[in-house]
Write a structure and sequence with these properties.
Plug_dom_sf, tonb box, 647 residues, 22-stranded antiparallel beta barrel, 6 helices, siderophore uptake transmembrane transporter activity, membrane, signal, globular, Maltoporin, Chain A
């Protein structure tokens, strides 16, 4: 359909970023791989960059939707949170513990649950993103905790890019959703760059039918329509100031989501069950050259707060569940280019988790309140050398050593060899290790003495070892191909034991996979991205992982429609069948999304129309087995209309 429309209208050379040539797209630098700027060909990973114009062209509404456009990535939504699957692993309900998400290099994963937000719970409006950097594979050699399967670094826009005021309003049906944003940005004559933005969202959600089965084991199924139980409210605030080498930013997110599915095994079809997540994330940073121009210093301090609040009924009694996290820390990093052919980085990072508290309360009963206080710290020292061995051969050698208050010291090494075989071909060979210590929520308590519960010894850290080969080849100035072959082994996976009601170290996992992708651009502004991924992830005893599709296919096509003043974005995504945590088979599916953007109909006005699940495909996804419904149906066709005013 997109090709037919493109042929129907006379084409002209486009001038915006959506029509950048392939060579220009490849010149976009990456910061998240090594904490300093690198060309994509120099990064020791199969790195991908999603630009702001791609987000606008395809109308992605969440960070997860943007990331699932990439090879080897899929997502799952359980009507509370969105979970990311990477290279075969997506444990239902795991809160994205094994992917590190950062905003301008500042860690988003909070310290109590290790959770990374990716859906509407992400604490930044997607309109404020300049680019998304996705670095698959272990990133522990630079980042330490959580970077087992990849690092997602979100780079925000600056005030000069907005240069005025942006006002946005959008509606979406049938979710009965309304949202808005106001952003003000400018670079002042003094050199101070300032951006301030506030966003809000409110949705009533859909009234859906659920069959919860025999809840009370009395031979009677509980089923019905969850009416007005899928609502959502979200408020976000973002400010960023930069002047020369100095920068400061503050991000606040407050999201409440109603629970229509009784996901944690609470009483089904009872209204007013909800979860609420509040984040506060700040950092102040200096990054600039010292007196010696071959030395660059990065120094930053950060502070974060996270509050969790949930209310749900069990056997007719209402319970309150809370979590409170307060963290502060700092990082120092030196980058030296003094030695010929070497780029040497040395750094130290400290984080003090003053609060990692969790609580449970039977509402209305003073003697049924339990507070599980906790605190901790972690420290890491890292070093990396990017060594140019010859004009065509380079090596990256890195090591990070982390120590924490939970279970001692862990090391995360990595090594990569990058060979520029021809001007158009690059081969990367990489090995690496990363780890994750058990978080505060995975520390089990001994209730044998109910008056004074005690904390049990920690389980072992998870450790992943990865090997990978990546081959990039430029077939033509406007066509590039990539192949990535990988193998990973994860040991001591932390899992919940239903028999002992404790967290334990589970069996070893192994996976191998192949990712093939192509990127094609045309001088008239068209672009085609396509990928096919084959992945097989299993436990050591041979059983396949839950929520792990063997095949993923992606196709993204965009083109200008000059005669209509539009730009069209069409995406198609295929996911093969997978297994739910309960053992049931979940059928595969293919989804189509269509998005049209009009930016030239009137000066300073942009209008877009997005249709998600274009052909109203009925499909389901596996979720955590802690609730009544291990497989949940997903949304059908939805339509979103958005208008943006810039002045």
């Amino acid at each position: 359909m997109g090709l037919a429309l493109a042929a129907a209208f006379p084409v002209r050379a486009a001038t915006d970023m959506a029509a950048l040539s392939l060579e220009q797209l490849m010149e976009i630098t990456v910061v998240g791989a090594s904490k300093y700027e690198q060309k994509q060909s120099e990064v020791a990973a199969a790195v991908s960059v999603i630009t702001r114009e791609e987000i606008r062209t395809f109308g992605w509404r969440t960070l997860a939707e943007a990331l699932t456009s990439l090879p080897g990535v899929h997502s799952t939504y359980d009507r509370q949170y969105t979970y990311l699957g990477t290279r075969g692993l997506s444990q239902p309900g795991d809160l994205n513990l094994r992917v590190l998400v950062t905003i301008n290099g500042n860690r988003v994963n909070e310290a109590s649950y290790d959770s990374a937000t990716l859906g509407r719970e992400f604490l930044l409006d997607l309109d404020l993103i300049e680019r998304i950097e996705y670095i698959p594979g272990p990133g522990g050699a630079v980042y330490g905790q959580n970077a087992l399967f990849g690092v997602v670094n979100v780079v925000t826009r600056d005030g000069a890019d907005i240069d005025g005021t942006e006002m946005v309003a959008a509606v979406q049906s049938p979710q009965r959703l309304r949202e808005g944003r106001v952003s003000v940005g400018r670079r002042l004559d003094s050199g101070l760059d300032l951006l301030v933005s506030a966003s809000g969202l409110r949705a009533r959600g859909e009234n859906r039918f659920y069959d919860f089965g025999d809840v009370d084991d009395l031979g009677v199924n509980v089923a019905g329509v969850a009416t007005d139980m899928d609502g959502e409210r979200d408020k976000e605030f973002f400010t960023r100031m930069t002047k020369g080498p100095w920068s400061f930013e503050l991000i606040h997110g407050d999201r409440r989501k109603d629970d229509p599915t009784a996901l944690a095994g609470s009483d089904p079809l009872v209204p007013n069950q909800f979860i609420r997540d509040r984040y506060l994330l700040t950092q102040a940073q200096y990054q600039g050259q010292l007196a010696d121009p071959s030395l660059e210093l990065l120094a930053r301090v950060f502070w974060s707060e996270y509050r969790y609040h949930s209310e749900a009924p069990y056997w007719g009694n209402w319970y309150l569940f809370t979590g409170a996290t307060s963290s502060r820390g700092g990082e120092l990093r030196l980058l030296s280019t003094a030695l010929p052919a070497h780029k040497l980085m040395v750094g130290v990072e400290l984080q003090d988790n003053q609060r990692q508290d969790m609580g449970r309360e039977w509402l209305g009963y003073e003697d049924e309140r339990y507070l599980f206080p906790n605190s901790g710290w972690r420290a890491g020292v890292y070093v990396q050398d990017e060594w140019r061995m010859s004009p065509t051969l380079a090596a990256t050698l890195g090591l990070r050593v982390d120590r924490n208050s939970v279970n001692g010291t862990q090391s995360s090494p990595r090594a990569a060899l990058i060979w520029q075989a021809t001007p158009a071909s690059t081969l990367k060979a990489m090995v690496g290790r990363a780890h994750r210590a058990p978080n505060a929520a995975e520390r089990s308590w001994d209730f044998s003495n109910e008056d004074v519960p005690t904390l049990l010894p920690a389980v072992d850290s998870e450790v992943i070892d990865t090997r990978e080969l990546v081959f990039d080849h430029r077939m033509a100035p406007d066509l590039s191909l990539r192949g990535a072959l990988y193998q990973w082994t994860l040991k001591d996976l932390i899992v919940w034991d239903k028999n002992t009601w404790q967290w334990v170290s589970g069996p070893r996992m192994k996976a191998s996979g192949l990712e093939l992708s192509a990127n094609k651009t045309w001088d008239w502004g068209g672009r085609l991205r396509a990928s096919l991924s084959r992945q097989q992830a299993r436990f050591a005893h041979g059983v396949g992982l839950a929520n792990s599709p063997n095949w993923l296919g992606k196709l993204h096509f965009s083109t200008p429609l000059p005669a209509a003043g539009l730009r069209l974005g069409y995406e198609w995504q295929l996911e093969s069948a997978r297994r739910a945590a309960s053992g049931e088979r979940v059928s595969g599916h293919g989804l189509s999304n269509l998005h049209l953007v009009a930016e030239r109909w009137a000066p300073g006005v942009s209008v877009s129309l997005g249709i998600h699940n274009l052909f109203d495909k009925a499909y389901s996804q596996p979720v955590s087995d802690g609730g009544w419904v291990p497989i949940q149906s997903q949304d059908g066709r939805s339509v979103r209309l958005k208008m943006e005013l810039r002045f």
